[in-house]
Amino acid sequence: MKNTIVKTLIYDKQVRLFFIDNTKLIDDIFNQNKKIDKVHKLLLGKAVSAVSLISGTLKGDLRISIQISMSHPKYKIFVDADAKGNVRGFLSDELLNASLDDRSNVSELIGHKGNIRVIKGSAMNQFTGITDMPYRNIIDDISHYFNQSEQTQTYLKANIVLDNDDHLQMSHAVYAQLLPGASPYLLDKIRQILNANEKFVNKQGSLNADNFEKRLSELFKGVKVIGESPVQFFCGCSKEMFYGILHSLSKNELKQAMIAKEPIDTSCQICGRSYSFNESDIQSIL
Fold this sequence. Notes:
single chain; alpha+beta; Hsp33 domain; CBS domain Like; 2 domains; six-stranded mixed beta sheet; 11 helices; elongated
């Protein structure tokens, strides 16, 4: 069940409750950003973890993109996902290159000007919402977005564990959302039960489907497992996408590169994949 969203309904279909062990997904994304340190990993990892679970609510050609902006106007986190569970995430260059140590305070980084911008929908029909970040800790603030912008009472919990060398040991997350007509008090009850049963949350990735439903039924009433869906890192970049960089250069710059017989190299900010444009490629746009 690792890297798989386990989807359940509890309390007789009053609450949608999703679980995920997304350790591999988060590790794959960290490996695309090898130079990031502990604080960067926690910022990016928690944002990706939350969005990976939210992907389980999408259908068809829907996708969700989240941009988290901090008080420093150029410190940003970008994450997006589609209904197939394809997830990607990265930090802005300014945040990635910022000198952050273990004493760096996430709350201070987000600050009083932090905000979350969400674009959700299909290519032809998109909804955009923006909320502030009163909790200053990413996970609670993404929950706050759903509560405020979409008027759906939502609870998110994400746990990322790094070892002494800042290597990822595990990543788990939980998503709970009240369905129409649900009793408002249920979300607080779910939060209390999950906080009191950390071992179950952290070990759910090692359980098979039968054991999972049985164990979950010991915690909540009216449990029904309704499905599973995978998540995985996927960038989707291609050489064709980077031709825009050539078009941004002047004709003189392009001609100079051809005269010098030097390729123009670029790389994807998300996955790190490199693309090289040779003399023939440059000639094609002159």
